[in-house]
Task: structure prediction
Amino acid sequence: MPVSTAPAADDRLREEVRLLGGLLGDVIRVEGGQDLYDRIEAVRVASVAYHRHAGARGSAELERLLNELSLDDAVGLAHGFAVFSLLANVAEDRAGKRRARVQTAEGARPDTPEGALARLTAAGRTVEEARALLSEALISPVLTAHPSEVRRKSVLDRIAAVSDLLDARDDSETPEVEDSGLRRQTVILWATRLVRTTGLVVQDEIDTVVSFLERVFLKVAPEQLIGWRKRLDAPEMAPFIRIGAWVGGDRDGNPNVDANALRAAFATPAKAVLRHYLEAVNLLGAELSLSGSLATISPELKALADGSGDDSPHRADEPYRRALSQIYARLSATHPVLTGQTAPRPAPFAAEPYAGPGEFRADLAVLHDSLTANHGQVFADDSLSRLIATVDVFGFHMATLDLRQNSDVHARVVGDLFKVAGVCPDYAALDEEARLALLAAELAAPRLLFSPYATYDPETLKERAILEAATEALRMFGPDAIRTHIVSKTDAASDMLEVYLLLKEVGLYRPEAPGECPIQAAPLFETIDDLRAAKPTLERMFKEPSALAVAKARGVQEVMIGYSDSNKDGSYLTSTWELHEASRALLSVTQAAGLRLQLFHGRGGAVGRGGGSSFAGVLSQPTGTVAGRIRITEQGEVIANKYGEPDVARRNLDALTAGTLIASLAPPPDEAMTKKHGETASALSVASMAAYRALVYETPGFVDYFRAATPINEIAELKIGSRPTSRSKSMAIEDLRAIPWVLSWSQSRVMLPGWFGFGSAVQGRDMAELQDMAKEWPFFRTLVQNMEMIMAKSDMTIARRYASLVPDQTLAATIFGALQAEWDRTRDAILAITGQEDLLGGQPELDRLIRLRMPYVEPLNHVQIELIRRRRAGDDDPLVREGILLAINGVAAGLRNSG
Result:
């Protein structure tokens, strides 16, 4: 496939794109034929011309080519450009790694460990303070099942293989050998289905998340911990990076998550991590052949070796190997306990299973201490040390699983329990204070409400079974297995107490020791109204002894804040400002209660869902709201983009750590800036929300336009998740899940959730003040930069062609005209604020990367439009559907943060 002549980020990137594009072009000629190759090239050229010459001059040739495409050619074209987008992403990620190395050599960036420590030093903070902070820190990327990852695992595996071969090519004296491998992988990728033909089930999502944990995080997270321990001279510093997961525990709107799914969410990663430990211990046994007659050993090691069931005469004088045989046997015995399956290579003799990862670590520490005490520091940083660090980070559970459910479900279940027990016939009819009084009384009483002899609603039995499975998981895997139960749609303090009552029913909350409850109820404030009510809701919750006792025992109250629903509710600017203000308000409440605040940021990949640079996002948080503790959701295609390759994953984990250190110890002047510019920001927020809601919720026919001018209906058929795209059968925007809402606007290249309303809000404002805000205030600067990035990926010329799909062209003209006018206003406002002549004028590297990508994304948009038009006209050929889904796949891959 030919490559674009747009400027590339660097020469190597251009070379690799040309290499991969050339290989793909050769494969298309051989596998698809010269005619398909020629049609792909013709559409690419016409797409570029259309973009450069919008209107009749540019569209005539493109329309002719699209109309002449046979169905097979259209599908082949979509497949070809989608594959190229995937390959171009590999080259781009590698270019990012090279830039990071160059920048590190020239001077550390602030989002690196070296850069962060230098910034702290410049601010007068010490290494000791950094060490103390990280020793008690919690930095947790949480991998969710939210469905915006359109790529199959098979495709992700091929991408990883291509990246590995390019790495090998860099180090090879005979690159043609790797080129042969690259060609082979390109053939496989070309011949691999890019879209799923069947829907995902929860186990599929569990397997996908575990594949990232096993392939990337098991290697990267311990290495990152060891690296920071060395920098801070803190060899025993506790892990601060804790990987979290929602898959199998998040049942909000997903009827497929049940008790069996929760059990699988623990058994599947346990298999992976125990297999890793067994292999590591086996390798250590092969390595540590030290003889007891030639090497001094500690008494503890001698006791461990002597207590081993390994009676092989070949290892009689090899205490380390005998100790490792015992460790292996105990791990092997632990495997069936935690997974229900025999270990892949069972030990040759019986042993007691480990009661928990602490016992396993203690045995490993005996070996490590003996080696370092008797042979020095050459054993201080070896494979055994890395294995111990891995156990520190992952235990036997690998990732801490969050539970999540909607508050309406909890209310119904509690109401059912009360009704059957004869406590209250109609809990739903009670006002908030009456609910709280009833819940408090029950939480103080020792009796249980549930009776095994009574009849309950199926929903009640299902929720109880899930919490019983959670109790089992905590017993098997320890307290880090589940820490939090998130309550979606929180709007009252009773929402939290309902969770504690349900936990009481399965023995996790005990009235005589509420502080020992292992799971904390965490409110999720999602809509604009919920965010505004967050402070009084949390204040009221802390008046309840039960909730306060759990928080006091931890010293921390976690609160989740939602980016996507607040954005869908009120615009990007309004969402961002309301999240900022809610965070400040929540901090004041927790501080007044003598607690620390732990914010859990429900970010997505797209700017409209809180996306953008994680480092910049952390630094833009209000002063005091980070304080060494932050959790952030990672989902969909963002997981693969940020954590799909070890070097990239390491950079992102280090960036999160660097941002947390700086935001905690040398924060930007957010408090001062809020006092100085908060009134302006608030006024902008009000105006933006008014403009946004006037279009989305108050314009007649807007829903019809949205459903016709975006591929929302087609996205519903894309098998990217185990949950439905909408919360109900309603067609209303309010009931649509945020992910398909954002993904639809991304596909149609409008990107509305990431910018609409800002241009109108800025009209008539003091531009000098806005310019100062962008220079001085990280919060506002990050907001503007994120909008600038998403607008650079938008394309109103292509969006106009999507508008042609609307049956009522008068309606289309009206609404598209409003979109175009607001886009123009927003672009002009951004340029005026930044002082640039073009979008991304101040970020040339990002500008080049986007320009490199777009010539291969735009043809996919055009093919998608043509195939949607055919399908909506009645062509129900399965190939039409396949072509549409391929195009959606390719556009999402090319935009990289689409959902």
